[in-house]
Design goal:
This protein is an alpha+beta fold. It has 2 helices and 5 strands, in the order E-E-E-E-E-H-H. The strands form 2 sheets. Strands 2-1-3 form a 3-stranded antiparallel β-sheet. The longest helix has 43 residues. It is elongated and about 70 Å long.
Length: 131
């Protein structure tokens, strides 16, 4: 069992991971290398995964936050005067939730990678008769 890390076929930006049987033939938007330790969004090149620059990472986080707030308007800052402490706190909380969603996505990718490593270890152990 091998873990395959795949990217969007058009943008080549990392999308996730999935287990595949040993001997799996990679597609052009896939790799056996784990990009989860790289700054998001990671991009697949002909030489492997490349981390985003600081500016790309900042833009990526802003887009993810806007996407989250569009999908969850209850966390968007209400259009009340900025001097309202409750409104400011709610807006800050919405931003924190957006960041938590992004962090959760990264943790899920890391957990998938760990699961693949465990599955690989178990498969090797079983192949050796459990010794």
């Amino acid at each position: 069992m091998a873990m395959v890390y795949y990217a969007d076929p058009v943008t080549l930006i990392s999308m996730g991971a999935r287990p595949e049987p040993d001997g799996y033939q990679l597609k052009s938007n896939e790799s056996f290398d784990n990009p989860s330790g790289l700054q998001s969004p990671q991009k697949l090149t002909s030489t492997g995964w490349v981390a985003a620059t600081d500016e790309e990472h900042k833009t990526y986080l802003e887009v993810q936050q806007k996407k989250f707030l569009a999908e969850n308007p209850q966390f968007a800052q209400p259009s009340q005067p900025a001097d309202d402490k409750g409104t400011e706190a709610l807006g800050a909380l919405g931003k924190q939730v957006g960041q938590l969603v992004i962090d959760n996505q990264k943790n899920a990718q890391a957990l998938q990678a760990l699961g693949a490593q465990v599955a690989s270890f178990i498969a090797k152990d079983n192949a050796n008769g459990g010794k």
